[in-house]
Design goal:
Catalyzes the adenylation of molybdopterin as part of the biosynthesis of the molybdenum-cofactor. The chain has one domain: MoaB/Mog-like domain (Molybdenum Cofactor Biosythetic Enzyme, Chain A). It is an alpha/beta fold. It is globular, with a radius of gyration of 16 Å. The chain binds adenosine-5'-triphosphate and ligand MTE.
Length: 196
């Protein structure tokens, strides 16, 4: 039995956190991970406003004290004055992982021309990978799972395909996925015997 990975889910929204509307970020993240992951996992969820010190403090708490190997944030990546998630993420990161942001913007352009307005980044802090997703709840599935053709075949692979191997490389638990949702890619040498 493999160790359950702890995944931080951080919804960053002024209006969801003050009750103006119901938060759909954390439910959407849970729903997608529930379909995508076949190995054990548990989440540590936080709903917070777009306040840079609070975002930094939350990311540090989840990475350093809650034992999260992966944190997914949603919201606050756009150009508005209150959108500061990328700045907070970069401030707590030890190493930037630019490929995630680049690839998410490419994937998202298949859905909306305003994809280029998302300044999303990803970083490694210690043994935790932190990835920003946009705030629109539907963008969670779009970026993690990618683009499908009308017949369900994959046209553009989602960024989650690269996350299990990245977590391996930083010392986290071995994550396995349901390949009908997202196929995790690992080099052959990194695939554990008896596992996909
Ligand atoms: N947590 C959320 N729950 C439900 N819908 C959301 C959430 N976050 C964002 N949205 C929707 O996605 C849109 C774009 O997200 P964005 O992060 O830019 O929010 P915003 O316009 O800065 O406002 P806020 O921070 O108050 O959610 C929002 O205007 C809202 O319609
Ligand atoms: N996949 C996907 N990416 C997306 C979107 C979307 O609907 N789907 N919305 C875009 C829009 S309209 C904005 S303003 C930016 C920033 O969103 P955020 O401030 O909610 O993080 O994400 C962009 N990326």
């Amino acid at each position: 039995m493999s160790t359950a990975i702890r995944i931080g889910l951080v919804s960053i929204s002024d209006r969801a956190s003050d009750g103006t509307y119901e938060d759909q970020g954390i439910p959407a993240l849970r729903e997608w991970l529930g379909r995508a992951l076949v190995s054990p996992w548990e989440d540590v969820a936080r709903l917070i406003p777009d306040e840079r010190p609070l975002i930094e403090q939350t990311l540090v708490e989840l990475a350093d004290h809650e034992g999260c190997s992966l944190i997914l944030t949603t919201g606050g990546t756009g150009p508005s004055p209150r959108d500061v998630t990328p700045e907070a993420t970069l401030a707590v990161g030890h190493k930037e992982m630019p490929g995630f942001g680049e690839e998410m913007r490419r994937i998202s352009l298949n859905f909306v021309p305003t994809a280029i307005l998302s300044r999303q980044v990803a970083v490694i802090r210690g043994s935790c990978l932190i990835v920003n997703l946009p705030g629109q709840p539907k963008s969670i599935r779009e970026t993690l799972e990618g683009v499908r053709a009308g017949d369900g075949s994959v046209r553009h692979v989602g960024i989650f395909a690269a996350i299990p191997y990245c977590v391996d490389l930083i010392g986290g638990p071995y994550m396995e996925t349901d390949e009908t949702v997202i196929k995790a890619f690992r080099p052959k040498s990194a695939v554990r015997p008896g596992r996909p």
